[in-house]
Amino acid sequence: MNEETHVFYRNPFTVYPVIARGEGAYLFDKKGKRYMDACGGAVVSALGHGVPKVVEALKAQLDSVEFAHTSQFTNTPQEELAELLADLSPGGLNHAYFVSGGSEAVESAIKMARAYWVQMGRPEKWMVIGREQSYHGNTLGALAAGGNRWRRALYEPMLYQRPRVSPCYCYRCPFDKDPAHCALECADDLERAILEVGPEKVSAFIAEPIVGATAGALVPHENYFRRIREICDRYDVLLIADEVMTGLGRCGTWFAIKQFGVVPDMICLAKGLAAGYVPIGATLVHNHIVDTFHNRRNVFQHGHTYMGHPLAAAAGVAVIKYMQQHKLVERSKKMGDELMSRLREALHDHPHVGDIRGRGLFCGIEFVLDRASKTPFEPELGFHRILGETAFANGLIIYPMGGTLDGRRGDHVLIAPPFVITKAQIGRLVELLVKSIDATVDRLRD
Ligand code: PLP
């Protein structure tokens, strides 16, 4: 039992080092130990730590006003941030609904989809379809839409039971197809689910453009989202792109969904939006949805106390401007290519590395017991957990995660460093990672 802490998250006895400061791609604890932040915490720190420009912008905002409620005032930073996002987002997503994090952004999107269909005179369209092996947040609505079984397990039955469809998981195709010759059966699974429950009941389909926490930077088939868009259009189902992890440059473009050639009806953002300087989330909404709320009697009935918080919005503005000024989205692509080729060079023939995947500075590695058969490690071994702990002890922070397959088995890590990472630092990252993987394998062998 840790006697010194009154903080309770997972359990009261896990002792963490105390964070002291951050600089660029590094964090330092109070004892002076240095850690390379190779996953931005939880894919949050896009700019790196301690960027003076962002800190100055936050101080300046505090000098003017710290808070004014959105039901009484608007504020300059939220207006500016909404405009910047409208300029950067795919065509037509011209409005932003600001909240305080990813789960709130997803909840807002789910409720907005439902409210939209009420506006359209179709109140029976309420159901959201999600995918297996997806994560959309930990609040009950977002958790119900997601398909991360181990996060859901304790809370079943969920408030709403919603259908979930197959993921687009080419390394382990759920339909046993070769991705080079498949007919996008995984995308057609959405049509099957819509027809099964009845299109008249389905309001939206939600998906991460590149799956993050539950499947380790799972990049979909090139044509997957085009087929999904067609199916959504055919049955009047809104498409929600959950870009909480992938958004704002992480995958080498401002929005990952742009790489797959479709425009969604809503986009959820959080993490990278203020890069960890202040909590923020946003749901970007297409004009055709916003237009239905232009009648004063038909408002979007929702809201949170801290939505549009001036400090959070000021951080978002400062982060986006810094990224534009320093061409960090382009850098995410360039350094992502460098990271990917270094990872492949170092690990392509490693007996326990099954797949290396991702886009931009959003890379995932899936570990297996046996490469040829793709057999995963037994979950009781805790491969990903031991790897995460070993890397941490070696001064490397990665994002380990399990449960990709049947909810129990599967081990992977996310590597998602800040965009300011240098080539030399990428070299060091890969070196520490390989050392940690080998030490983990040795430990499990003993
Ligand atoms: N959506 C996705 C894709 C996420 O990866 C996450 C968090 O990891 C969330 C939603 C939830 O965000 P938050 O933890 O800020 O509530």
UniProtKB/TrEMBL annotation:
Keywords: Aminotransferase, Pyridoxal phosphate, Transferase. The keyword Cell membrane does not apply. It comes from the Bacteria. Gene3D superfamilies: Aspartate Aminotransferase, domain 1, Type I PLP-dependent aspartate aminotransferase-like (Major domain). One of its GO terms (molecular function) is transaminase activity. Its cofactor is pyridoxal 5'-phosphate. InterPro entries: Aminotrans_3 (IPR005814), Aminotrans_3_PPA_site (IPR049704), PyrdxlP-dep_Trfase (IPR015424), PyrdxlP-dep_Trfase_major (IPR015421), PyrdxlP-dep_Trfase_small (IPR015422). Belongs to the class-III pyridoxal-phosphate-dependent aminotransferase family. This is Aspartate aminotransferase family protein. It comes from Thauera sedimentorum.
